[in-house]
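Postdoc handover notes: sequence design on the structure in folder B. Input tokens:
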């Protein structure tokens, strides 16, 4: 459980770091599983499935920048998503009833792993309320040099910014266009086995990996059970199967706020957020150059 001081810090700043959550043996197991996935990627040459590949990926030198839905592909990650050590931390932040809202493993191979441009998660999946957060579990030491996540403290209490460019949703903001001051951004440096929690409205991103050390960050997204996605639900039973604590409900909580649409979507396909954000990188070179 979180202390009241930790809860207050999260409410004020929109993020929190909790040290030493995973044991060394769990980290060792996670590393072996991830290494096996990367080995499998030698036989993959195109974006798709659960592999999102770095541009310079080759069979001889496999480089994966994201594994999509790792909880679906390996029981270790599925079990960790449901682990009480994590869920107990969230009850003070988003409530007792918790739904799994998505998961991915973002990986930055040594010497160049791809950046993720500044964005707010809530712009990608607006809901009827904003009791949503993401938990980032560090599988490696996360540092400035290897491209740790950076957050803008207090940005979760501000507006949802424009994530469009030339009329299309690209999943990233334009700091220069919108005159966003990023000088207050904080690097979430943490030791392997620690985790971060950030609010779905918190502005965040990460730079290139400029070190010889990999940076692997396992990300779990969670939502209050009474938060309804404004984009709708494709299958009611599947939606409720993602409830980790609590029961299904037909009553969803509405709060007074503005939510931006993510339509129309950008024209690029494949590669998830990396390809979606390419128009911004090509125009502004925000995190693409560090």
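Designed sequence:
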């Amino acid at each position: 459980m979180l202390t009241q001081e930790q809860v207050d810090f999260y409410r004020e700043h929109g993020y929190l770091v909790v040290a030493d959550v995973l044991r060394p043996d769990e980290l060792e197991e996670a590393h072996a599983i991830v290494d096996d996935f990367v080995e499998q990627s030698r036989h993959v040459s195109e974006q798709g499935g659960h592999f999102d590949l770095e541009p310079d990926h080759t069979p001889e030198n496999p480089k994966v920048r994201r594994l999509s839905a790792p909880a679906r592909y390996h029981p270790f990650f599925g079990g960790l998503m449901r682990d009480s050590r994590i869920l107990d931390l969230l009850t003070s932040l988003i409530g007792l009833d918790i739904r799994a809202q998505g998961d991915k493993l973002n990986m930055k191979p040594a010497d160049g792993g791809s950046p993720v441009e500044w964005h707010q998660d809530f712009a990608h999946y607006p809901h009827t309320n904003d009791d949503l957060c993401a938990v980032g579990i560090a599988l490696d030491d996360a540092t400035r040099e290897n491209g740790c996540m950076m957050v803008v403290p207090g940005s979760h209490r501000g507006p949802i910014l424009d994530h469009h460019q030339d009329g299309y949703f690209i999943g990233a903001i334009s700091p220069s266009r919108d005159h966003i001051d990023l000088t207050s951004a904080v690097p979430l440096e943490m030791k392997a086995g620690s985790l971060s929690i950030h609010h779905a409205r918190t502005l965040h991103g990460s730079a290139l990996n400029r070190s010889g050390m990999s940076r692997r960050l396992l990300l779990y997204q969670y939502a209050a059970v009474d938060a309804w996605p404004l984009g709708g639900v494709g299958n009611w039973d599947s939606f409720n199967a993602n409830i980790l604590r609590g029961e299904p409900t037909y009553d969803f909580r509405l709060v007074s706020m503005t939510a931006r649409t993510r339509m129309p979507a950008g024209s690029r396909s494949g590669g998830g957020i990396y390809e979606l954000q390419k128009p911004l990188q090509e125009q502004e070179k925000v995190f693409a150059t560090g």
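Context for whoever picks this up: The chain has a mean pLDDT of 91. Don't rerun without checking with the PI first.
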